[in-house]
């Protein structure tokens, strides 16, 4: 800033001796940078002149005190404005004088500048200068100047007070502008209130000549007092920023169970024939007692649905799960499992097959398996799969999602809601639920209990763990394994409905009397299975699951450049997926999409088009439909429909079935169906709006290339988004997998006329805001 700069003589004295000592302030000469000089000068500020007499100092102090008193009284009576008054920097002022006149300056007393010219006119040793100018002694001259400056300042103060008195009578809203107007009339520049200190400094510089340097010290002190009294300016409102992610290594190590650090990697291309799978059942000593296989009944069901071989995720997990007992023995080592496998790799069957195989041995119906999924559509989809596989086993499968009334769901869940039953009353063996509705039933449906749960499956686990859903996970865990009740029970202790039926509470409540030592509370035998294509290993989230000896399996392609052993999150992609991106100007995005759909080169069909929101989906759908109507010359008609959460579930069902049958070519959708939805006919996925994070990308592109089929994912990246998108892909080690596609502007010319018609219709449709 220029206020830190010092004007030096153009022609420095040849005999000037530069002194770079940090605490001295003699004429430094031009060889030292002025900024540096100013810095060096600062400590000198507090130094007193050795040459000054005590009496003189006292006199000056008294004067100073008196003047401050007057100033303070004025200030106290005057309302404050936001305008900052200029305060000269005494150091720099002194520096200017010092270098210009080549004098030694004492800064401690601004008004007591001592000048010592190189002619050396002499000093009386008490700060009196012997030389005279035009018959007026130097001292008299300084006094006169001082007086004039003081009078000038006082006049200015008076004017200011008058102005402010005038202003206080006007409305408060007009205050700042009026002050600024007045002050600019006064020879100062306007300083908008929101402007930062740099603008204020600019004003300071402009007024450099107005106030003499002799007043600098005292004004500086007053300014400091003023600044202390006035409130601190408010900080700017912070913009939202995501917290910096911890280093993957730290993330992976922080309290992560060792089983999760040493994940087992399974090659995505692994296949095992249905007849070849053997699950070893071990004795307490670890010897293999027997080899379990998939039952003939199950094999038949699987073959009926087109399953001949088991996919990698199934081949990895089934030997672990099939060997489990319905009622584990005390020495059975029960593990929890975390499975990260690509989209469409068959995770549903990886848990559906063993659950049905194990639970079909049960005699009485009790709720033994709970599957939690994030959306209603996924619950329906998984229920359909389970029902097909469980046919003929007598297992009862139900779901709660809020699609039906609460009482309807209650009657499906429990047989008896009237009698308080210690063991609860379940009509179901397997329940599939969304977390919110599940918690509703746990808290409000009598005799609905999780105490017999053998398997808790959390599908799309990262999504469910990321969203608290009324803190659903800790609630569910507490219902599986309620804490011991306080003993003895305090008076007036309220027993919750679930307390009445949970075995761990029975003793505390005096409902059972444990006389024998061996008659221990039955151990909780619920095993947790977590599945996702983007599974988190964030220690804090993993900790919330209270996992028991967890095992971690990652199913991925061995062709990947590097296997991310230690990253907090793994992203797996189907090996049959090819990925492409178009980097384009925003204005050409719709035309490029149209080109992808209508050109003979690409001719994209059987596709899902993802946008960033429901509104964007609707807008794009309208545009495509208007374009389709206008584009007659091509003769190609494309059936495009919308598929968003706004639609009724019956309507969504109808649209999906039309899409599967090929009656609809393209679905424009929000991210609602990006997760988990299994539509075998999807061969293209277009991200019209770039996904904001890697997870969204993985789940979007994962709607194609499922179950070993080929599929292509297209991402339209606006030029200004390219850096972010590529960075995101690069961080995930996935950028190289995406091929860049270029569309020449000439190729778009065929569509321009129809596009303009469509845009006009769109504008008419939305009004002028379109
Ligand atoms: N072994 C198999 N052989 C043939 N098809 C299979 C096999 N396993 C699963 N599938 C089929 O693969 C498709 C995808 O399976 P699924 O929905 O379980 O995938 P997913 O891994 O859960 O995917 P997402 O992560 O997207 O939810 C389904 O249509 C399913 O029927």
Automatic annotation (TrEMBL):
Composition skew (Acidic residues), residue ranges: 206-224
Domain Helicase C-terminal as annotated: residue spans? 592-749
Ranges annotated as biased composition (Basic and acidic residues) = 7-16, 45-58, 82-96, 113-127
Q: Does the keyword Metal-binding apply?
A: no
Listed EC numbers? 3.6.4.13
Question: Start and end of every Helicase ATP-binding domain?
Answer: 328-553
Q: Where is this region: Disordered?
A: 1-247
Q: Which InterPro entries match?
A: DEAD/DEAH_box_helicase_dom (IPR011545), Helicase_ATP-bd (IPR014001), Helicase_C-like (IPR001650), P-loop_NTPase (IPR027417), RNA-helicase_DEAD-box_CS (IPR000629)
Q: MF terms per GO, please?
A: ATP binding; hydrolase activity; RNA binding; RNA helicase activity
User: Per the similarity annotation, which family is this?
Assistant: Belongs to the DEAD box helicase family.
The name under which this protein is listed is: ATP-dependent RNA helicase
The major lineage groups are: Eukaryota, Fungi, Dikarya, Basidiomycota, Agaricomycotina
């Amino acid at each position: 800033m220029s206020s830190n700069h010092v004007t030096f003589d153009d022609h420095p004295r040849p005999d000037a001796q530069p002194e770079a000592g940090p605490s001295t302030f003699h004429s430094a000469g031009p060889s030292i940078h002025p900024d540096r000089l100013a810095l060096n000068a600062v400590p000198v500020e507090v130094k007193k002149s050795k040459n000054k007499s005590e009496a003189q100092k006292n006199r000056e102090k008294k004067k100073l005190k008196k003047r401050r008193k007057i100033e303070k009284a004025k200030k106290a009576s005057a309302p404050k404005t936001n305008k900052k008054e200029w305060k000269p920097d005494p150091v720099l002022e002194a520096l200017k004088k010092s270098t210009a006149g080549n004098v030694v300056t004492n800064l401690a007393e601004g008004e007591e500048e001592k000048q010592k010219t190189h002619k050396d006119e002499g000093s009386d040793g008490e700060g009196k200068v012997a030389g005279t100018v035009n018959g007026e002694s130097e001292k008299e001259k300084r006094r006169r100047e001082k007086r004039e400056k003081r009078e000038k300042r006082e006049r200015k103060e008076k004017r200011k007070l008058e102005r402010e008195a005038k202003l206080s009578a006007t409305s408060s809203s007009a205050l700042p502008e009026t002050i600024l107007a007045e002050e600019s009339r006064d020879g100062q520049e306007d300083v908008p209130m929101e402007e930062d200190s740099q603008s204020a400094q600019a004003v300071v510089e402009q007024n450099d000549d107005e106030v003499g340097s002799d007043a600098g010290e005292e004004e500086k002190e007053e300014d400091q007092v003023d600044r202390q009294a006035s409130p601190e300016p408010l900080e700017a409102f912070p913009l939202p920023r995501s917290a910096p992610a911890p280093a993957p290594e730290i993330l992976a190590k922080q309290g992560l169970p060792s089983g999760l650090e040493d994940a087992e990697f399974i090659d995505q291309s692994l296949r095992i024939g249905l007849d070849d799978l053997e699950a070893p059942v071990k004795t307490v000593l670890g010897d293999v007692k027997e080899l379990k296989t998939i039952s003939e009944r199950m094999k038949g069901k699987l073959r009926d649905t087109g399953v001949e071989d088991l996919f990698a995720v199934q081949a990895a997990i089934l030997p672990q799960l099939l060997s489990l007992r319905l009622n584990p023995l005390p020495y059975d080592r029960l593990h929890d499992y975390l499975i990260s496998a690509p989209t469409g790799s068959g995770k549903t069957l990886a848990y559906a097959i063993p659950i049905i195989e194990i639970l079909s041995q049960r005699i009485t119906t009790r709720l033994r398996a709970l599957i939690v999924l994030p959306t209603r559509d996924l619950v329906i989809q998984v229920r359909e799969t389970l029902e097909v596989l469980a046919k003929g086993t007598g297992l009862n499968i139900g779901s709660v999602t809020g699609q039906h009334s609460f009482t309807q769901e209650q009657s499906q869940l429990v047989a008896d809601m009237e009698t308080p039953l210690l063991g609860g009353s379940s009509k179901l063996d397997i329940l599939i639920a969304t977390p919110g509705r599940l918690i509703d039933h746990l808290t409000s449906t009598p005799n609905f209990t999780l105490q017999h749960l053998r398997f808790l499956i959390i599908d799309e686990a990262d999504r469910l763990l990321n969203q608290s859903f009324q803190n659903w996970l800790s609630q569910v865990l507490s219902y599986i394994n309620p804490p011991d009740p306080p003993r003895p029970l305090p008076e007036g202790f309220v027993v919750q409905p679930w307390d009445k039926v949970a075995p761990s509470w029975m003793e505390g409540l005096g409902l059972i009397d444990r006389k024998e030592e061996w008659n221990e509370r039955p151990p909780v035998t619920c095993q947790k299975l977590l599945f996702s294509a983007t599974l988190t290993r964030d220690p804090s989230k993993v900790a919330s699951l209270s996992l028991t000896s967890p095992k971690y399996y990652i199913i991925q392609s061995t062709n990947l450049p590097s296997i991310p052993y230690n990253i907090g999150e793994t992203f797996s992609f189907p090996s049959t997926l090819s990925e492409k991106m178009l980097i384009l100007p925003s204005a050409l995005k719709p035309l490029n999409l149209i080109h992808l759909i209508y050109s003979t080169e690409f001719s994209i069909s059987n596709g899902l088009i993802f946008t960033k929101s429901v509104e964007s989906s609707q807008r794009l759908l309208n545009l495509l439909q208007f374009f389709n109507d206008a584009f007659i010359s091509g003769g190609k008609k494309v059936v495009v429909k919308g598929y968003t959460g706004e639609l009724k579930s019956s309507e969504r069902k109808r649209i999906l079935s039309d899409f599967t049958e090929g009656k609809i070519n393209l679905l424009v959708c929000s991210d609602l169906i990006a997760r988990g939805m299994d539509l075998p006919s999807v061969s293209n996925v277009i991200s019209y709006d770039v996904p904001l994070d890697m997870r969204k990308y993985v789940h979007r592109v994962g709607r194609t290339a499922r179950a070993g089929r080929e599929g292509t994912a297209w991402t339209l990246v606006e030029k200004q988004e390219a850096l972010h998108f590529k960075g995101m892909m690069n961080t995930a080690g996935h950028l190289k997998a995406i091929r860049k596609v270029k569309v020449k502007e000439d190729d778009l010319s065929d569509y321009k006329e129809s596009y303009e018609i469509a845009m006009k219709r769109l504008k008419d449709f939305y009004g002028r805001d379109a």
